[in-house]
Amino acid sequence: MLPSHFDRGVVEEYAPQIEEVLREASKGEGKALVELSAVESFDSAGMAFLIEALEQARAQEVDLRFVGVRPAVSDFFSLVGIERLLVPEQQAKGGNFVEKVGDLALPMMERLGAGKDLLVEAAHSLMDPSSGGKRAGRGRFFLELEHAGIGAIGIVSLIGFLLGLILAMQAWVQLKVFGADKYVADMVAVSITREIGPLMTAILVAARSGSSIAAQLGTMVINEEVDALRQMGINPVRYLVVPKVGALALATPCLAVLFSTIAIFGGLLFGVFVVDLGWQVYIEATSEALQAGDILGSLIKSTVFGTLVATVGCSLGLNVKGGPVGVGKATTGAVVASIFMIIVFDAVFVLLLRVGA
Amino acid sequence: MRIFKRKPRIPKELLERKSRTEDLIRGIAIETNFDGRTVLKGVDLAVTKGEVFVILGPSGCGKTTLLRHLSGMLPPTLGIVQLFGRDLYTLKGKELAELRGRMGFSFQGGALLNSMSVLENVALPLRESTDLPWEKIERIARLKLDMVGLLHAAHLSPSSLSGGMKKRAAISRAIALDPELIFFDEPSAGLDPITAVEVDNLILKLNKVFGITMVVVTHDIPSAFLIADRMIMLHEGRVLARGTPDEIREMKDSKVQDFIHRALPAEEQRSGGLARFLKT
């Protein structure tokens, strides 16, 4: 027997009761009746209560029926498709640790594959004189360059400066134990130029531009803007992807040089004012520590990273499905996949250039 | 450049049915499957020059998919699409570009590029497909905007336009290259009845004045009967009826009448759900 107003205020009180009824019925003849004749009004919580009861009844193989339903309530009932609501929930995907890591890494590899295809198509569209989008795309490269490059100068400089300072402090704490204060300069110069400069810059570019590229292209896809371009005879790869990849491939190494220079300057300030090394000593130590190969390697690395970030962002953005949620996923995916691939490529670089040689 | 990722399958017997007449568009036995689900099945149609051809049907009947097939955006799984007498999905680079220059497309949401002004949007196909200097292009774009009554909004960003203005701007972009044929995807969707009639009148005006052939996909029954010279009605991926608006109105078929009079088909009316668990 249920009360006259069966709503969210009272449903919980009846939960133990119905469980009891079902338990008894499953032991007995397998049939149960719920009296609804007193029920005048009903809300969604009441409805959910009944559906839950039916679900439990089905699990315990009890034939549960409702009796004495008033017309107003039965109208409410006819609105829902009970079969659809009674489908059992799917079991959560299990798997051991290795499988889980695999689930994480495999999509990354797929993204890399899709990115490679897109890059080939972009290169192709650049060579192909009949490809649409050339005239309309004029000037877009500089817009992208301004957005991805000049727009990032502030944050890259700030983080570069702070990181140079932090690195110098950390190095000094360790080195002064051995009385090797002077090597703070070498430490900062080499680690920044070879590793931290290109890596941090690429991660910043991924966070700033990779995400914005994926979000922008994804939104264009769901607004049918990409279809519209194609319909106007403009190749979207030529018009949208080529300028973005080109701009990031050029902007990232420039930003990496800026980052490294300012980081070394940050280290220098610490070296001069705290460690008391003197300007000239510090600068000389830095220039001795650095080799042309370090700077060249850093430039090549950054160019590859920039291309990677733009390609991954474009390929995820252009393949967005499923509306705004899809755009959100693509944006997150672009940053995560970019950073993952930056690290993987960095490892390959170190292996080839340092360990191999 | 890869134009179409896949080509439709064309059984031999279909080749004999290719049109040799002056039909502007001819669709033969078009069939589409998405992930094993059949969206369109055996759709035939022919659009003649200068007419307003309406594809009418409820949401989810496959009409937008059909429009994408006809306009060269998406190859069907099977069948032939002929446009201006050419086999659309066998064309490459230049030929396809030439064909695209002869048609315009008005997307459901307008699909204006948000990164540029309304004027630049209209100018975009002109910049891409012609060698005219910018001054000329701007003049033409302003002319096209004036035709749809949007000259005052030329320098606004698309995001600041109302729904009806977006549609008109999209139409203005579709007519930028003086096309012979325009495809419309749901021109009156999301518009109030008054604005919808304005857009309908604009379609009719462009048809009468410039003789542009129009292919319009819609679920809006009054609008369809107002603008159509001929129409087909789609139901669950098949052609349910075809003819002039008057012919369709006279049809006895219950599904046709149900749709025209906005009735819910009897078998689809929901009876049931929880009601089955009531003990009488």
State the main characteristics.
heterodimer; A: 357 residues; mainly alpha; Transcription Regulator spoIIAA; two-stranded parallel sheet; 4 strands; 75% helix; B: 280 residues; 11 strands; 22% strand; globular
- Work out the strand percent of chain B: 15-25%
The span between the termini of chain B is: 68 Å
Helix % of chain B is: 25-40%
What is the residue-mean pLDDT of chain B, rounded to a whole number?
A: 84
The tally of helices of chain A reads 14
Unreliable residue runs of chain B: 267-272
Give the radius of gyration of chain B.
20 Å
Most extensive chain contact? A-B, 42 and 35 residues
Query: What is the terminal-to-terminal distance of chain A?
Result: 83 Å
Secondary structure class of chain A reads mainly alpha
Shape of chain B: globular
**Net shape of chain A:** elongated
What's the SSE pattern of chain A?
A: EHEEHEHHHHHHHHHHHH
User: What integer is the average pLDDT of chain A?
Assistant: 84
